[in-house]
Amino acid sequence: MKRLRRILYALFGVVILAALIIAAWVGMWMPTSLPQTAGSIGVAGIRSPVEIVRDEDGIVTIRAQNDVDAAFALGYVHAQDRLVQMEMMRRLVAGRLSEVLGSMTLSTDHNMRVLGLYRAAEQSEAALPDDVRARLEAYTAGVNAYINGHTGSWPPEFAALFHRPEPWRVADSLAWGRIMALRLSGNFWSELLRYRLSQQLTPDELESLMPMGDGAQTASLSPELPPAAPSEDSLLAGLGSILAPSPDASNSFAVSGSRTGTGAPILANDPHLGLESPIVWYLVRIETPDSVLVGATSPGGPFVIIGHNGHIAWTLTTTHGDTQDLFLERLDPADATRYATPDGTAAFETRTETIRVRGGADEQITIRSSRHGPILSDLRCYQWVDKSYVLALSWPGLLADDRTATAIYRLNGAKDLDSAFTALRDFHTPQQNFVLADTAGNIGFVAAGRVPIRKTLSANSTMPAPGWGGEYDWRGFLPFEELPQVKNPPQGYIATANGKITPDGYRHFITAIWPDSYRQDRIKELLRGSWKTTLDNAAGIMRDTYSTAAREQLAILLHYPPMASVFDINRSAASEVLQRWDFRVNRENAAPLILTTWLREISKSMFSARLGDQFIDFAWANPATALAIAKQQDAHWCRSDFEPCRKMLWVSLGVAARQLTDRYGSDVGKWRWGDAHQARFANPLLDRVPLLGDWLFEPLETDGDDYTLNRGTPSIDYESDEPVFPHVHGASMRAIFDLSNLDNSRFMIAGGQSGNPLSPHYRDLLVRWRDHQYVTMVGQGAETLTLLPAP
Q1: Nearest-5° angle of CA 496, CA 752, CA 592?
Q2: DSSP labels, 325-372
């Protein structure tokens, strides 16, 4: 027994010693993964010394003697702070995640290879103008100078994976634009969903559920299409977050000097993206003797995406133009390697690629493309019932002649509104609403990007089109001059928030269905009410939590009188809270929590049985449809009899009230939106580590919902009965530009400058982001690192 006890003590001592060694390694070696922020470093690739100044928030000012050295330094600091993010991004686009992460990402790699985004980025590199290429090559050299010169530990994710990043390439920077374009161009997904639903709904039911939009005509309907994919596969689960559409997102507005307190324009923007850690933005100020650039860059690229250059400021919101089409290709019955075209059959363009899998066997795949684009039905997640057809994707983001990088480069150097518009002629994808202002007092807007001109619309461009006859083919893109645009409008302001941006009588097709205009209309309402806008007024607009949508939704719901036969005390208390609500979606309020839970249960009750396996995909993409149908008392879903519809709504409130009581207690007065609505900002890699994810990414209570200017898009799990709605999408950054003195401009990003969880700047801006605080970037800082030219 004594001998056994000694053995156990020895084993215990070994465990303790191992734990101490690991702790010492983490405590002493892992901090060497943090960047050097003071002193000097010799690097090859610059002509003159460059200063990198960091302030107390880790925000960088670069001071260089020329633009090329400045681009080098930007690549260097991006690699210092965000190398893991950059590495995973380029591997995602190239379909090479499995080389690092193993078979768990094999499906994603397969899908990205089929799309061919990285291949398109490589092709567009060959056509870069010399000055744009020089900037990208200098940036690339800066990234590689850091990788090659790094002597400490790699960031924790790389250390855990025993991974060392490869040298950076120019194509890697161009690939960043391609993946962002994909995330902001998702209308093919709705075409696919509508096609699937058409297999199980009558035409009238389908039209009431997913209308074809304004201007739809019988002549635009497609001929009969073959069967769609099997309904038991979820599009949302199969295509994944990369291919699924991004929620309608972003606010931007400009106010002319005649309506501001300074007499010069004010410009504001908060682009809405998925909330993760690190966020896609990195703040920087770049000074050279000839120029200044200030704003938000994205690690992986050398350009300021949203910012100012001392002369002009520019912002972005997504247009949600219809720039993607699905085409059905009919296979040759005698030879499945060929498909039908207007001129007979043609062979698919094919290529073979190898996906290398860490810890597993490599996978070789054959990728096919038709004259319309890559064969989307070759995606691993998607298979056809009818093997006589395949599905191809047409999208400008896949074209080799894309000049978007050139457009952003030229925009960074524009001196006034007119030269900015000239630069944006080369902006190809994704289509974006650019709202701009210059120091001469001009404001303007243009929906820049390639918008296809179709010979004929297939179901108003809401369904896939037959590809074999050619009648639905594209015949070019809208000329830049004919895209929606305006300079110095008479009302003195411009507002975009993803709603309709075409004027009455506009003759071109941009999209069949615009996102709702609640946020856009709210901005205009607030601007009309403030004759002399200030920076604080602009900040207040972005902080606004009033929900016009909630007001309208409750008006619909409360139009149906309560039914005594289905009423109880919880339902009554919840109803009273809603009736007293001021429609502010604040985290202290109970009403947003009650309404969101109620709407989820209404959608389940109205659609789940009829839509079956398609319900989750539909409800996720169309969360407000149930209310629209209830308002119309649509006989297809709510039944023409008033009582069944009314009973369904009030029974759903009872279900919601019970769920809320079970989760948050019986005292309705203690229910809070903030208890259910929290932003987590998880790291895509570290969140997979048990316990570590919860420790690093503590949730933060937030305000807002999907319809408020202070955007707080909740994730609604239609398969759950839990009244929990995480905040997953919202303002990834905020910027307010003062054109009377651009150094007064205000900025904030969601998270922190660093992507390293050991850094004090990993999450240090989160609370200030939540509370709508800002920083200025005027070149201040306490630490200076000097890059010195070296052989």
Answers
A1: 55
A2: EEEEEEEETTEEEEEEETTEEEEPEEEEEEE--TTS--EEEEEEEETT
Judge contact between 737 and 43, C-beta under 8 A.
no
How do residues 28-74 score in pLDDT, each as one tens digit? Answer: 678 999 999 999 999 999 999 999 999 999 999 999 999 999 999 99
pLDDT, one tens digit per residue, over 499-554 is 999 998 999 999 999 999 999 999 999 999 878 999 999 999 999 999 999 999 99
Beta strands in 124-233 (DSSP E): none
H/E stretch holding 179: helix 170-183
For 689-720, b/e burial (b = at least 16 CB within 10 A) is: eeeeeeebbeebbbbbbbbbbbbbbbebebee
* Helix (H) / strand (E) containing 106: helix 106-115
pLDDT for the residue 378 = 86
Total domains in the chain come to 1
19 confidence band (pLDDT: 50, 70, 90): very low
What's the confidence (pLDDT) of residue 238? 58
CA dihedral 507, 512, 518, 522 (to 10 degrees): -20
Among candidates 401, 437, 402, which has minimal Cα distance to 420? 437
Give the DSSP letter string of 404-444.
HHHHHHHHHT--SHHHHHHHGGG--SS-EEEEEEETTS-EE
Residue 210 lies in a domain: no
Distance between CA 269 and CA 284 in Å, rounded? 17
Confirm whether 626 is domain-assigned: yes
Say how many CA atoms lie within 13 Å of 654 toward its Cβ. Answer: 15
Task: Give me the phi and psi of 763, to 5 degrees please.
Answer: -135, 15
Which residues, other chains included, contact 777 with Cβ-Cβ below 8 Å and sequence gap of 6+? 59, 61, 283, 284, 285, 294, 745, 747
Name the β-bridge partners of 492.
none
CB 654 within 8 A of CB 747: no
CA distance 262 to 740: 7
Tokens of 650: 């009030």
For 737-771, what is each residue's pLDDT tens digit?
999 999 999 999 999 999 999 999 999 999 999 99
Assess if residue 577 is contained within a domain: yes
State yes or no: pLDDT of 497 exceeds 50.
yes
Nearest to 173 by CA among 301, 71, 78, 70: 301
Using CA atoms, how far apart are residues 77 and 90, in angstroms rounded to an integer? 18
Q: What is the DSSP string of 277-331?
A: SS-S-EEEEEEETTEEEEEEE-TT-SSEEEEE-SSEEEEEEE------EEEEEEE
- List, in sequence order, every residue forming a beta bridge with 270; answer none if it has no partner: 251
Where residue 626 sits, what CATH number does that domain have? 1.10.1400.10
pLDDT tier at 5, thresholds 50, 70, 90 = low
- More reliable by pLDDT, 468 or 695: 468
222/219 Cα distance (integer angstroms): 8
Domain-embedded: residue 597: yes
Domain that includes residue 630, residue range:
548-676
Quote the tokens at residue 83. Answer: 């190398």
- In the numeric block, the tokens 């850094």 are attached to 759
pLDDT in tens, 596-646: 999 999 999 989 988 988 898 888 888 888 877 777 766 677 764 556 677
Predicted pLDDT at 267: 98
Q: How confident is the model at residue 18 (pLDDT cuts 50, 70, 90)?
A: very low
Q: How far is CA 58 from the centre of its chain?
A: 24
